[in-house]
Amino acid sequence: MSITELPAWRALAASASRLTNSRLTDLFDNPERNAKLQLGVGGLYFDFTKQRVDDNVVHQLLALADDTAVGRRAQQMFDGEKINSSENRAVLHSALRGGANPTAGVSGEVNDVLQRMYSIAQRIRSGAWRGCSGKAITDVVHIGIGGSHLGPELAVTALEDHHTTHLRLHFLANIDANNFRACTRSLNPETTLFIVASKSFGTLETKQNALSARSWFIERTNAVDHLGKHFIGATSNVSAAVDFGLYEENLFPLWDWVGGRFSLWSAVGLPILLALGEDNFEEFLHGARQIDRHFADRSGAENIPLLTALLATWNYNFLGANSLAVLSYDQRLRLLPDYLQQLEMESNGKSVTLDGQAVDYHTMPILWGGVGTNGQHAYHQLLHQGTRAFSADFIVVGKDERHMQAHHDWLLANAFGQSQAMANGFQAGDGESHRNVPGNHPSTTIILDTLSPRELGALLAVYEHKVFCQGAIWNINSFDQWGVELGKELAIPIYKQLSGNGTLPQQDPATQRLIDYIKIVRSENT
Ligand code: F6P
User: Fold this and answer.
1) How far is the CA of 269 from the centre of ligand 1 (A)?
2) Measuring CA to CA, which residue among 373, 335, 279 is closest to residue 459?
3) Does residue 204 have its Cβ closer than 6 Å to ligand 1?
4) Ligand 1 in reach of 235 Cβ (< 6 A)
5) Which candidate, 109, 105, 77, 82, places its Cα nearest to that of 93?
6) pLDDT single digits (tens) 145-193
7) 82 annotated active-site
8) Among 8-12, 207-211, 272-276, 509-513, which is the least confidently predicted range?
9) What's the CA gap between 373 and 299, in Å, rounded?
10) What is the pLDDT of residues 471-505, one digit of tens each?
């Protein structure tokens, strides 16, 4: 049976018709409603009052969570059942931070790896780890892509105030040689350490970048016997990493029950540990653990990840929002939209149910975003006067951590003013329709008390559990990503044609013309 036939779904559809002409501003006029829609946990404050819901809709959404067994499915996840059915894997990333998985039986091995991570990080950070010429490490290049990149770079960037190291951290993800060049241009190979992070150790970009890094290192040092002092790795495919040339003693295992986009809490997060040090990294894990417990223990109406997911479902499936704008009003969180794009869209951009049936409802819409206030001078025009429905998450930090109060006051004033404009809109006088702002767009404002490891860990874990809840409601597998495979396969024969290896079947006419055009351009340039 499709979820659209559930009583709660039907009730919500009726409510959506009932609320078609309702204004957010009218809904605000209810202190009891508003009190229930403002919740806090772990240094985070969630203001859901600007969502287009009344009490009735919230009850129906909670009924939808019951009808779709979100709670039972969450328990299955925490217990280590193989809920990633297409890959026959458990989903236990919360065990990496000692979350809500007492029965899953993995805490021993998690702790062993964590202690090894702490030990190597201590040696690298203190200068005890020496490179090929006996010098201490000054620069660390993390090679990885997707889930093996976005989380670590976000956390390292966002938590710059909490770095406790002289090490400079760099990230190399794209296969584009311009990325390789920009990353390595100013590095000294004798004092550079590469971390190759790839769960599968089969990812094209990471393997190519690691190969080029190895050549770059050997060409400049001639120290082929000292590769182990400059390359370490995190992978669940140890044999492929060893075949590639990494030393087994320099490898940190990943488990198949950690999905790539949930792996920043594991050895993939080594750059975070190197930047922050052990105590801050513990705080980061602690923040996420608090959310695991909150998510496992709190009843529906007080459960922040669940409410976040339910309100998103209301927006996407019933109010017609076809994008989610993540608006970070904090420069340090500029990479948050990129990270969430993978987390939410790779997880829930699916169109078949767990039983293999085509869905007859929408799943994850486009998630995009950027930093405020910059976006106000770019795409906010469309948000305020465009024709499409959307919802927005505003993320702000409460404390003025730079001690530049005018900047901070203006930043927050703009964030709150923008959510106000999206909610309330503006009606200009006669003959001035070009100034009208329709408003009535739903948004959530999330305030982090400070931007510390603990709050960041908590924020990311809220979004992780939101993703889980949405997948459960939509009855899809949030933990696989088969859609990315086709493009990878198609690139192989095209690569062979471009590199001129062998005789290959022609591509479709459109693609063949692109390849032929490149060959002409290249021949003209040489
Ligand atoms: O291609 C998508 C993907 O598989 C992501 O899910 C993953 O995070 C990324 O590639 C990198 O994969 P790996 O860690 O195996 O290199």
Assistant:
1) 15
2) 335
3) no
4) no
5) 77
6) 999 999 999 999 999 999 999 999 999 999 999 999 999 999 999 999 9
7) no
8) 509-513
9) 36
10) 999 999 999 999 999 999 999 999 999 998 656 77
Catalytic residue among 399, 488, 496, 519: 488
Verify whether ligand 1 is closer than 6 Å to residue 491 (CB atom).
no
Nearest to 363, CA basis, from 485, 464, 476, 482 = 476
Distance, in Å, from the CA atom of 444 to the CA atom of 462, rounded to the nearest integer, reads 13
The answer to whether the pTM exceeds 0.85 is yes
pLDDT tens digits, 204-260: 999 999 999 999 999 999 999 999 999 999 999 999 999 988 999 999 999 999 999
Question: What does the block give as tokens for 268?
Answer: 């993939």
Residues 6 or more apart whose Cβ sits within 8 Å of residue 144: 152, 171, 173, 195, 196, 197, 198, 206, 268
Distance (Å) from CA 147 to ligand 1 centroid: 6
- Confirm if 252 and 116 have CB atoms less than 8 A apart: yes
Cα–Cα distances in angstroms (integers) from residue 295 to residues 55, 133, 151, 253, 499, in the given order: 21, 50, 21, 28, 51
Residue 97 DSSP symbol: G
Q: Is 164 within 8 Å of 276 (Cβ atoms)?
A: yes
Q: Which among 282, 346, 455, 464 is annotated as catalytic?
A: 346
β-pair type (231-235, 192-197):
parallel
Q: What angle do CA 205, 197, 155 make, to 5 degrees?
A: 105
Buried/exposed 210-236: b ≥16 CB within 10 Å, e otherwise: bebbbebbeeebebeebbebbbbbbbb
Listed in order, strand segments (DSSP E) in 190-259 are: 192-197, 231-235, 251-253
Write out the H or E segment, with its range, that includes residue 518: helix 509-525
